[in-house]
Amino acid sequence: MEKPAAKFFSILFILSAMVWMYTSSMKNYESGHLLKFATIEFEENLNPVIERASYRAIAEYSVMIFISYPIVIFSAIGFVATSQRTFKEHGWLLMSALLLLMFLPVEVYCYWLDWKIVGLNYWGDWPLDEFRKAMIARLTALAGLPFIAQLCYYTIPIIIIFKPLQKSEA
Q1: Contact 93, 79 (CB under 8 A)
Q2: What pTM does this model have?
Q3: How far is residue 154's CA from residue 96's CA, in Å, rounded to a whole number?
Q4: Dihedral over alpha carbons 8, 13, 14, 20 (to 10 degrees)
Q5: Which of 34, 125, 162, 163 is the most exposed place for a label (fewest CB within 10 A)?
Q6: Cα dist. 46→26, 74, 114, 147, 157 in Å?
Q7: Which residues are bridge partners to 166 per DSSP?
Q8: How many helices (H) and strands (E) in the chain?
Q9: DSSP reduced 3-state for 35
C-alpha cells in the first residue's frame, strides 16, 4: 500500500505529464504548418496573418509547457522520494526516472530558446523575420536531441505499463 504522499505525487505527475506532452505535441504540430514537409524551410506563400497566428499559438503552448514541465519534474522526484518502491526491485521505475531526468539540461536549453518566441509574441510588434530566426534556432537546437528526448518521453508510459526488470516475488 502506497503512502498518501506517493499517491498525491503520482496523480499530480500523471495530470501534469498529460498537459505537458499534449502541449509539446501541439507546439510541434503548429511548427509543422509553417515549414515545408521534411525540411526546415518556410512555406513560400504563407499568409502573414496565419504565420503570426501560428507563432502566437506556439508562444501560448510554450507558456503552458513552462508551467507544466517543472510540475512534472517535481512530482516525479516527490513520487520516487515518498514511494515504497525501490529502484533495486522495480527496474522499470529506474528506467523511467532516468529517461525523464537525463534530458533535463536539453529541455532547459530549449526553453531558453522558446522564451525568445514568447518574448517576441508578447512584448512588442516584431517583424516576422525575427520570429523565423527564433524558430529556426529552436528547431535546429542541439542537432535533433530534443526530438530524441521526446521519443524517450513517449517510451516512459510503455515502460510503466509493461514494467520490465521488475523483481519477481517468487
Answers
A1: no
A2: 0.92
A3: 10
A4: 150
A5: 125
A6: 20, 40, 22, 25, 37
A7: 90
A8: 6, 0
A9: strand
The backbone torsions φ and ψ at residue 81, rounded to the nearest 5 degrees and listed phi first, read -70, -35
pLDDT confidence of residue 117: 96
26 and 58 in contact (C-beta within 8 Å)?
A: no
The residue behind cell 520490465 is 164
pLDDT digits (tens, 9 = 90+) for 45-81: 999 999 999 999 999 999 999 999 999 999 999 999 9
Q: Is it the case that residue 94 has pLDDT exceeding 60?
A: yes
Among the listed residues 157, 8, 113, the one whose alpha carbon sits nearest the alpha carbon of residue 71? 8
- Around 56, how many Cα atoms within 13 Å sit in the side-chain half-sphere? 8
Phi (first) and psi of residue 36, to 5 degrees = -70, 150
CB atoms within 10 A of CB 32: 11
